[in-house]
Amino acid sequence: MTSDGEKSGLGKGHPDSRSDDAKLDIEATRERVDDEIQRRLTRKLDIHILPFLFGLWFFAQLDRANIGNANIEGLPEDLKLDGDKFNIALTIFYVPYVIVAIPSNLILTNVGAGRYLPSLAIAWGIIDTCMGSVKSYGGLLACRFFLGLCEGGMIGGMVIYLAMFYRRHQFSLQVTMFFYTSPFSKTVDGLLTTGFSEIEFNGYNRWPWVFFIEGAITIIFGIIAFLYLPSTPATACFLNEEEKRLAIHRMTLDFHHSDDTDNTEDDTFSWHWVRLAILNPNACLCGISNFLIITPTYSYGLFLPTVIKALDYSRVTAQLFTVPPNALGFLTTLSASYYSDRLRLRSPFMLSGLVVTIIGYAMLIAAPVHRPGISYTGTFFVAAGIFSVTPIIMAWLANNLRPHYVRATGNGFQITMANFSAFVGTFAYLKKDA
């Protein structure tokens, strides 16, 4: 009897057990399918959107800094930039650049980021092209001012644009990656300028061709981005209908149910969050740190060709010699960010980058005049250290601020502080001190 009862009990319980197991298998399979769809969507966004945004930011960096390369190709002599006029021309770019971010973002929300951001690129490409035709100091100032006016809305606009497509835990990494383009653009600019500055045609010799060609390339890229970039997931031609619905749905869920400690109340904008962000010790510390770090970064990027030429190298050699240190800066920035994320450590990489930068500037300051090799080696140390620090600081702050509006405001605050540093960095190297 016992044996039959046990068999009978097993006969009754076994189907239920198998049913439960089957339900668990179905749920597990559904989760795997959902995860795969999410990954496929993210991969599509990475492939179709990020290259264009990186390109826009690359050309923004290229077109604002190419005046530093033109400086050793006869620009000051042709425009009679005596005294501190060249430094003033550098500085005036940042006057509209600092103040235009908020009104530019308001325009973006009405026009659509997929059209507005490429339009800015087309506009500053035209201005950059026009800069090759200027015949006076006043014309140079006007071009630099309007160049800053157009570029000022880019970084904030790209952050807003990414937030339309990527979830919160994804797009902070994408934002920091834009800073990797800075040393890369300087590497490419040195190579391009070396070739373009040898062109002599139709009365325009050397430096105008830097602006003509780089501005024209920017315009072409801006037109392509204008025709391709979507403004919202719903208008993305590279997504099918299922992926569009998923992209919209997950952003809606992400807004109301963040995967951190945010709640619905936290997702409602209030000036209370702005006050919390600006008074947050982490945001203040990062803002001050970025101001101090970006100051030498600006001066290094703008004046590196001039510094190298001052070591008694020819102008062509000086342009080519800007490539290796900037290439090293690009590689060390990628490496530092990768290992910082992998090891989940921020401060050791930030501090080591600063130490390396200090060593490089010490070599530039202390090197004897008759030993240009020491000074040039110092530029490698500066590039290897200075470029890697800012992306890590931005990632660190993004990881330590919440809720959403505090994080967004805090990151905007430190970017604003970094931009103010340009007013100091552009006067770090004066003509009378050369």
UniProtKB/TrEMBL annotation:
Transmembrane helix among keywords: yes
GO cellular component: membrane
Residues of the Major facilitator superfamily (MFS) profile domain: 49-434
Region listing for Disordered, in residue ranges: 1-25
Keywords: Membrane, Transmembrane, Transmembrane helix, Transport
InterPro entries in the record: MFS (IPR011701), MFS_dom (IPR020846), MFS_trans_sf (IPR036259)
Compartmental location: Membrane
PANTHER family: MAJOR FACILITATOR SUPERFAMILY (MFS) PROFILE DOMAIN-CONTAINING PROTEIN, PERMEASE-RELATED
Protein name: Putative mfs transporter
Originating organism: Phaeomoniella chlamydospora (Phaeoacremonium chlamydosporum)
